[in-house]
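Input structure tokens:
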């Protein structure tokens, strides 16, 4: 009895028969246009910072990590960063998550908010008639704690975020503190969005 001859090796045939290889090929196809599009992953960093700011307790942070992971928040942030935001950043050299924002008031003055690359600082410029009349920097110093600094870097105010969503405002040269409740903040947001 004669043995059947083995067919010569064919890469095409091997590729067609190998489901695992086909799976890897399919998974790599979408990555090809994204090669070299390394960006900041600002959205993913924002989700990560939110997770870290929830509490100083590592067990609470871990629990929130599991919840965000279970709800695919991290996965969605990475996907949006990787597929959309990093491509925009690569081709325009601007990250949409750290883009400057301009608000215009009815009197024509403008407030320009420019976040820095790391997202822990925002420069706020008040502009009237095309000239900057005042500048401040809001710097995040800790979870829920911010300092307001003038152009010389001197601290002129502090903002502490309270557990109920209110803000506590203070000055370094005074013991007085002002509290902006959550309702006051919501009213301010609603009023400013109508007037601008």
């Amino acid at each position: 009895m004669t043995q059947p001859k083995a067919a010569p090796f064919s890469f095409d045939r091997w590729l067609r028969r190998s489901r695992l290889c086909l799976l890897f090929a399919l998974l790599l196809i979408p990555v090809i246009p994204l090669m070299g599009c390394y960006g900041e992953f600002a959205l993913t960093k924002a989700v990560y910072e939110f997770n870290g700011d929830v509490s100083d307790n590592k067990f609470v942070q871990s629990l929130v990590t599991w919840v965000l992971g279970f709800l695919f928040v991290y996965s969605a942030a990475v996907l949006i960063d990787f597929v959309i935001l990093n491509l925009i950043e690569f081709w325009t050299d601007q990250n949409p998550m750290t883009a400057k924002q301009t608000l215009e008031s009815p009197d024509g003055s403008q407030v320009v908010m420019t976040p820095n690359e790391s997202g822990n600082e925002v420069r706020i410029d008040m502009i009237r008639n095309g000239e900057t009349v005042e500048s401040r920097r809001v710097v995040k110093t800790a979870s829920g704690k911010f300092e307001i600094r003038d152009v010389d870097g001197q601290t002129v105010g502090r903002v502490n975020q309270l557990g109920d969503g209110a803000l506590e405002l203070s000055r370094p040269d005074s013991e007085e503190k002002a509290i902006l409740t959550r309702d006051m903040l919501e009213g301010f947001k609603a009023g400013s969005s109508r007037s601008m």
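The radius of gyration is 26 Å. The longest strand covers residues 131-142.
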